[in-house]
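Q: Hi! First time doing this. I have a protein sequence and I read that you can turn it into a structure. Is that right? Here it is:
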Amino acid sequence: MDTFSAILSEYASHAKTDPFGTWILLENTSHANTAVQKLREEGPILKDHITTIKGLAKSILSTLSPATRITDPEEQHLLFARIGSDVLGKKRITDTQTENLVNLFITLKTNKLVLPEGDDKFNDFQEIFSRYEEFCRKNDCCDSILAIEQAAGIAGEMEIGTVLCYALYKPTPLAVDLLLALKGTIITRPPVAENLTILPETCRGVFQYTDTRTELRSALESIARLIESGVRPKDIALLTPSLPSALPLLDELVHDFSVLLDGTRHPLRFTAGEDIPIENLPPIRSALAWLAAFAFDCRIDDLKIIIESPYFSLRKDWLTAGRLEKAGIITKTEKGRAAWRTVGERLASARKKEIGEQEAAFQSSLDRLLDRLDANLEHSGTLAAHCRALKADLSALGWTSLQMEPQDEAARHAFLRLLDKLALTSLAEVSYTIREFYAMLCRFCEKTTKISYPESEEAFFAGDLRSVAGTKIPYVFITGLSSDRIPRIEASIPLLNTQETARIQPERVQNLLDASRYYFHSSVLAAEKQLILSCAGHDGEKSLTPSPYLTRLAEPEEKSPEFLAHSVTANQTRAGELLATGRENECEGLFGIPSLEAAAEIIGIETVDRTGTPGIYDAEFAGNEIAETFAAAYTEKTQFAPTVLERYRECPFKWYLTDHLRLENPADFSAEKIIVGTVMHKAMERFFREYTEPLTQENETEAAEVLKKIVREEFDSWQIKTPSWQSLQNGYLGNGGLESSCEQIIRLETGFYAKGFRTLPEWLEQKVTADIPGGDPFTVTGWVDRVMFNEQTKEFAVVDYKTGSVKKWKELEEGSALQIPLYTEAVRQMTGCNPLPGTYLKIAPDEVEDKNPYLVRGKQQKSVEEVCDAAFEFCRETREMMKAGKCGTVSGETCPDDYCPYKRICRFVPFRGEEA
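A: Yes, that's right. Below is the predicted 3D structure, encoded as structure tokens:
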């Protein structure tokens, strides 16, 4: 029998004759929980008698001093913040300062240390601590550390027969005071943790992986194999020196693994010795966003979370997070109640048309949301009032009554309990601003308000090295054994420097080193059957070296990544490799691969070797049952934008993602080269609306100055201060010795004017529609930048502004450059006027030119009608290809878009699919 089981058996024996007088004290709550589970298997127990030093202190106070109130960490934080600001003479002190004060107080108390005298800094700290303890005495309350001190003073009155102490490694002086004050028999059972010089026989490997992600995935694969071989998950522990740092990555990776048991796949699960902070859990994120939207003048990120949240019952109509973001980009709105209440009008103005039904419904829904936000919350009030108002809002929004998953339900309960606790603290009637209240909730949701990982027979255990000290577990994996994690020495006490720490606690560093070694050796010895030790060479940010505790025992063996047979991602990658090489019949044994009909769901799988004929996993749906959905969708759809058709022929795969699946475009909307196109389109439109004089050589200088002024205003409106943005502006304005693009633009426009061309205000940014003849009827619709009419000949020409690349004659000839010919046909159908070849007007900061694609070396290659016919044919072919479900990548030597935002999931391979 191992020592842990022996101490539990000893406790059970004493408890049979004296259940109320027998206690067992363990190292930490993880040990206590394990002991409770094991003892419950034997019969009924008194759970509060199987505890820690802190738990014992609270039991003593509740029995002998029931009027004493144990304060929560949240109230302790608020008290230290208020007292600290008073003593230090500041309106507010930061959360970090407050946390450091609390940690210094705890360190001094638990180790019975005294601050040096005579230093103003130390005098201030001592004053803060004295006021805090005085407050606790007057209000008959105490925190968990002061509870140990108070319990030690009255512990002798407690009827205790036997106290078994197990795995209490070097109890603090404050804990020793409490133990010595207890009457009855104190039995100490330290676990065996000899100073190792060689690894135990249970060790099956010591490995070094390239990075922490690979290391953890390999451990999860090994754990999945063990469970599949019949090992109970509760007999497996995954340990690491710093569990809080490892948990986010473990949370992310474990969902990718599953095990096959009795013909059914089960997800890999774990339970942890560390609780989960509720801050980033979805329902809490929604609740905090609701408060933040009110407190910070309706920031767009907060509004998007509220709109997307499934936890609020809000009428939204046309209000979606995507529409709000696009409206914000177009109108340059990021926050502000007043700004959001006029965003519909400014959106309509930017699009140059009257506000439509969608914009009206969008604005109406947004107004309702803003009204609802302002209904109950106040910008200033007592802490209790803020808590009541937020609870009332959440209740009215359906947040408190909605059915949730167990973890979300636990988080909701913890959040509501946090609000109740704050409303009842000793500072409940103190006034706080709504922003202070929001910051307070965020801090507590991150630091103190947590929920436990669910206990389960199907879950393996994840913990730190302390969590298994003195226990036995059949299979143990210890990861993260790098020198920056173990030993991890904090040489100084919070708010003190190293020299000051050494004065009041000279053995601090040595004690920490001894504790690190003790817990590492204990965790190594915990493995009964199998032990695997590992470290990583990189954590994603910096290089790592193996811990000296590890290298003293063995040199790690470099481990290469292997095929992770229990990982969905690994199986999908393997499936992609097989499919790409025409070996789809080998996919049957892989899991995580749906039917081919559902291939669109996992188009993101990546492969190593993408040779072979493109198939269903490349979004090549022609000939498959999925193609029926495309045939129906694009027969029913009768209206297309020219840019959508162009995008399809440039890359059907990009079109499939953006226009069919409607994935959000991950492009960076703040990119300056994208924004400058918007700036110049707006500037040119304003110029022709605001400058009404003839564009002749006599007023060329005047017109250029007007355009420069407009360009300067449009550039300044974006409030971008980068050198590259200033350089673009300099090119247009002619600053810094550069030739002014604005002057070149006016010279071009003067030439158009001399030839009889005029630009009418109604033909600026005008929506146009063209019917495509032949085949099934359908139309193309878009916004033409500008149409010039010749007063003498009654002819017109379409102008398309470009600040980047332009289409060439070859693309126009083959029909793939659609905007100019289709917009030309649309204007012809709308006006009945005769068309002239449309043109691209290049208005870049370093180049201004009339780039008419119809002309090659100054000679027109084909008539407008012939080019339009080619565009019509191209449109009809494109629509038929859409109907057939041809959505695969293009074949050729190079990808047509070097800056495509979908490169990570693209399956383009040069010359793929072409005949040899």
